[in-house]
Amino acid sequence: MNIYVLLKKTFDTEEKIAVSNGHIEEDGAEFIINPYDEYAVEEAIKQRDEHGGEVTVVTIGDEDSEKQLRTALAMGADKAVLINTEDDLEEGDQFTTAKILEAFFDGKDADLILAGNVAIDEASGQVGPRLAERLGIPYVTTITSLTIDGEKIFLDKDVEGDVEKVEASLPILVTCQQGLNEPRYPSLPGIMKAKKKPLEELEIDDLDLDEDDLAPKTKTLDIFLPAEKEAGRVLEGDIGDQVKELVSLLKNEAKVL
Amino acid sequence: MSETKEKLFKGGAFLVEDLSGDDVITPEDFTDEHKMIAKTTEDFVVGEVLPLVDKLENHEFEHSVDLLKKAGELGLLGADVPEEYDGLGLDKISSSLITEKFARAGGFSITHGAHVGIGSLPIVFFGDEAQKKKYLPKLATGELIAAYALTEPGSGSDALGAKATAKLNDAGTHYLLNGEKQWITNSAFADVFIVYAKIDGEHFSAFIVERDFPGVSTGPEEKKMGIKSSSTRTLVLEDAEVPVENLLGEKGKGHKIAFNILNVGRYKLAIGGVGGAKRGLELAVKYVNERKQFGTAISSFRLTQEKLATMAASIYANESAVYRTVGLFEQRMGALTDEQLKDGREIAKAIAEYQIECSMNKYMATECLDFVADEAVQLHGGYGFMQEYEVERMYRDSRINRIFEGTNEINRLLVPGTLLKKAMKGELPLLQKAQGLQEELMMMMPEEVGTEPLEQEKYLLRHAKKIVLLGAGLAAQKYMQKLEQEQEILANLADMAAEVYNMESAVLRTEKAISASGLEKNNQKLLYTEVYVQEAFNRIEAAAKEILIAVEAGDNLRMMLSSLRKLTRHTPINVIAKKREIAKAIISEEKYIV
């Protein structure tokens, strides 16, 4: 079985975000595999171990993305592909990403493509579905369980806390939700082996694309941090007065009523 | 690393050689694999160990055994075990990073360290083929857990004074061991103990003793001040039957194993100290950013900032020094042939070479940890005294580090003692340098120190080395063979030498980093170095003065003091301003950063 994982590097969840001149400062920041993509890597490895085949991890990024790919290889993926757009693309959006991936998957015989439900940075959740659409294969988002039986695939899909049971057939693209599995730690033997596993680097040229094909369809107007949370207030007095004061504050000060 | 392999530094040579950044291994040299190994370890500690800390502190040791097995599955027990015995045979930086990242687990890091370090290494380094084949694969996975039994109720630092005995039985098949070994880490669940006993009450030797051998038992669990997550009991040997093939190394050569394993144990403790101190600083800075008094976060107070900066500068210097020693080991072990690596004597020689560095790292880094833990509690105020806060445990856990693996006092005494021995044997040109110094001082003219980055620090470093030579030369000349009894002077010399090693390690690391990636990216490193070097130099000056005053009197004293003044002449930097700058970055990042 040919299993592919779409992977993105994101800021470490511990990292503090600083914005300057409308850009998020990346200098010195630690990056990790997008946590939802980790579920995808883990699931891919589990399915391969059960059904055989090969796991290929694909990312679009820059030279530094190799680190996250190596981590996925250390977890147990077999091959990695870095589509390096650092020198070719100034900007991009979900359209750009889906378009590049479409070109990448052209001629590939993918049985199962796994992606994260969302990336924790921009959280669009679009790349997976858009890619499936372009490839003309079915997709199911936010899955929490995956079982393959021959050509059939059985999925649990998280629907705002409820579960939808879905039966579909391969090839398919799924996006992974928390609860699907517990991603393994890359073991030390895994880390040492990862050094020797193949990591292919491509540029958009190699995919017969040029910058114009990939111009984003959206424009980012501004990037800003949420307003800092202010200290709360504790109302005092008897309950009746407190309720009255609260209602008046909500009406006049917060203006939410 | 291949170019550096050719240049092997002698232990203690830092006092007489001038080095450049390229001569040392620094944390900036870590590879992506090193960082991944560190991350796996950290994730394992945070994800698997910390959730069980309360249970471990409560002596529910079944979890310790489970956790060690899980660690084994990830390869976290096999870094120092060669591949041919199912380990990973990783380099010393990898195994050091594992140690550093385990430190956060408190008592469990001692459980882990005792197993992979002093428990397993005696077999790795000194076991014969059959012993290695039998034990190492299982030690690497955690199927067997190891412990180290050297200390006895009556012999701690004086290890060779052990009373435990071994006697060959009449059939010549087994040694019968008798005695009591005290404070044995992992003793509640260890399967294999490295035990030292004197054959026929005379020949100090090491044995591999299995828990299931007849006559082996353990006493009740000790009630300790800290590291409660680790098991500590007495190992009781009553005609314990140990097969002759379990004699480790040669009969009567147990001290070679004991002392060399202690050396390794010492630098590993130092690495753990650095790891723990980093965590302490992180806890402290997170707290002071959150805690508000007088309407403002207490991190905005200058005195809070001073504490954070002093902690961070000390961590930087110790981190630089400890990994420099790791690099020395890596280079020396890396230069051994496969054949030599199988020969315990060659290994012992390689380890023994750096006993000075190991001892210095041990007392400096464990005291850095203790200082950081203490200040972290202080910055927490009353909350730091409450058990709900991690610093409370860290404060208690930290204390033992200054005691075990050779007290810091014993380690201090070892440093000048070993240096002088090396000088006498002609391995280090210490005496020649000290003699040359006298003449040099006569001629010495005040030097104009430039203002380029690190210039003042290098100047202070050069002079600090001379001050150590001045003090050591004077003391050696005055007391000769009786210097051993002047323990206060020896301790001062040990402090001075270790400060020099830390200063130089920080300077070289910063120099290397700046030449690799420029000044702007390494400003924090430069600040740490400037502050640490200035303050260490002040301490060296004070310690040297004390030595001169104790040794000389009258005109001689005045002459010596004037020599010291020549060597200490400089315009000090404004450490208060520098520390404010250091603190700013730490407060913003909420952790130790370089």
Biggest sheet strand order of chain A reads 11-10-9-12-8-1-6-7-13
Radius of gyration of chain A: 22 Å
CA-to-CA gap between the ends of chain B? 23 Å
Low-confidence stretches of chain B: 1-5
Approximate helicity band of chain A: 25-40%
CATH superfamily of the largest domain in chain A: HUPs
- Distinct helical segment count of chain B: 21
Regions of chain A with pLDDT < 50 over 5+ consecutive residues? none
Q: If you compute it from the alpha carbons, what radius of gyration of chain B comes out, rounded to the nearest whole angstrom?
A: 24 Å
* Average of the residue pLDDT scores of chain B: 95
Number of domains of chain A: 2
Content of β-strand of chain B = 5-15%
User: Which class of the largest domain in chain A in CATH terms?
Assistant: Alpha Beta
Question: Can you summarize the main beta sheet of chain B?
Answer: 8 strands, mixed
Question: From the helix content, strand content and strand pairing of chain A, which structural class follows?
Answer: alpha/beta
**What kind of sheet is the major sheet of chain A?**
9 strands, mixed
Structural class assignment of chain B:
alpha+beta
Query: Within the CATH hierarchy, at the fold level, what is the topology of the largest domain in chain A?
Result: Rossmann fold
Q: What's the assembly state of these chains?
A: heterodimer
